[in-house]
Amino acid sequence: MTGAVIAFAGLLGLAVGSFLNVVVWRVPRGESVVHPPSACPRCGHAIRSRDNVPVVSWLLLHGRCRDCDNPISARYPWVEATTGVLFALTAWFTGVSWVLPALLYLVAIAVALALIDIDTKRLPDAIVLPSYAVGLVLLTLASWNPGGEPDWAALTRALIGAAALFTVYFVMIIVYPAGIGFGDVKLAGVLGLYLGWFGWGSLLIGWFAAFLLGGVYAVGLIVAGRAGRKSGIPFGPWMLLGALVGIAVGEQVWAWYLDVL
C-alpha cells in the first residue's frame, strides 16, 4: 500500500511540477495561471496536449518547440522531475497519513517560491498569503486524524509556531531591514505553522538551518568571487530548505543536542 502511495505521489508531482512551471512564469507578472493555455514563449503557438506530458514530451521533442524549433529551456523538465521526486520522498517520509496532503502542498509552494525568489527576489503574496489558510485547514485535518487518535496539541503548537516565527522575523526586519524583506516575514509565519505542528525541536532546527545553510552558501559565493559582502542573496529558498530540514530531522537533531548538553 505504501509503495502504491509513493508511486502515485511521484506521478502527481510530475503533473504538479508542470503546473508550477506556469505559476513561476505567470504569477510574478500578475497573469492568470489558468488562462490562456500554455504556449511557446517565442512563437506563441499553443502547446498541444501530446506535447504537454511532463518530462517525456521535452525528451521526445529533443528540447525544442514543435512549431518554431526554438529551444525549450531544460528548466521545465527539471522542475517537473524534481517535484515528482520530492512528492515521492514526502510520501515515503509520512507513509499513508493525513499529514501527507499538508506536506505535499508545502513542497509544491516551496518549489514555486524558491524559483520565483531566485528569479525576481520576491515572494508573491498571491502564493504566500493563501498558504496560511490552506496550511491551517490541512494541518487541522492531520490533527483530527479521522479513523485514528486526534492530536490537537500539534495544532496548538502549529498556531504558536506561526506566531513565534512571524514575530522573530518581524523583529529582525526592524533591527536590520537590509538583511531580509517583508516577504520573508510573511513566509516565516507559514513555515512556523508547519514546523510547530511537528514539534518544538523542528521549529528551532528549521529556523536555525535556514541561516546556517544560507550563510554557508553566501560564504561560498564570496570565496568563489561571485558575490561581495553587500550582495543581495534571496533568502526565501534557504528558509524553505531549512523548514524541510526541520520537518525531516528536527526532532532527532534537537533530542541529540539536548543529550549532549
From TrEMBL:
Residues 11-92 form the Prepilin peptidase A24 N-terminal domain. Its EC number is 2.1.1.-, 3.4.23.43. The keyword RNA-binding does not apply. Keywords: Cell inner membrane, Cell membrane, Hydrolase, Membrane, Methyltransferase, Multifunctional enzyme, Protease, Transferase, Transmembrane, Transmembrane helix. The chain crosses the membrane at residues 6-25, 85-115, 127-146, 158-178, 198-223, 235-257. It comes from the Bacteria. Signal peptide: none annotated. It is found in: Cell inner membrane; Cell membrane. One of its GO terms (biological process) is signal peptide processing. It catalyses: Typically cleaves a -Gly-|-Phe- bond to release an N-terminal, basic peptide of 5-8 residues from type IV prepilin, and then N-methylates the new N-terminal amino group, the methyl donor being S-adenosyl-L-methionine. One of its GO terms (molecular function) is methyltransferase activity. The keyword Cell cycle does not apply. Residues 105-219 form the Prepilin type IV endopeptidase peptidase domain. InterPro entries: Peptidase_A24A_bac, Prepilin_IV_endopep_pep, Prepilin_pept_A24_N, Prepilin_peptidase/N-MTase. One of its GO terms (cellular component) is plasma membrane. It is a multi-pass membrane protein. Plays an essential role in type IV pili and type II pseudopili formation by proteolytically removing the leader sequence from substrate proteins and subsequently monomethylating the alpha-amino group of the newly exposed N-terminal phenylalanine. Belongs to the peptidase A24 family. This is Prepilin leader peptidase/N-methyltransferase. It comes from Cellulomonas terrae. The lineage of its organism: Bacteria, Bacillati, Actinomycetota, Actinomycetes, Micrococcales.
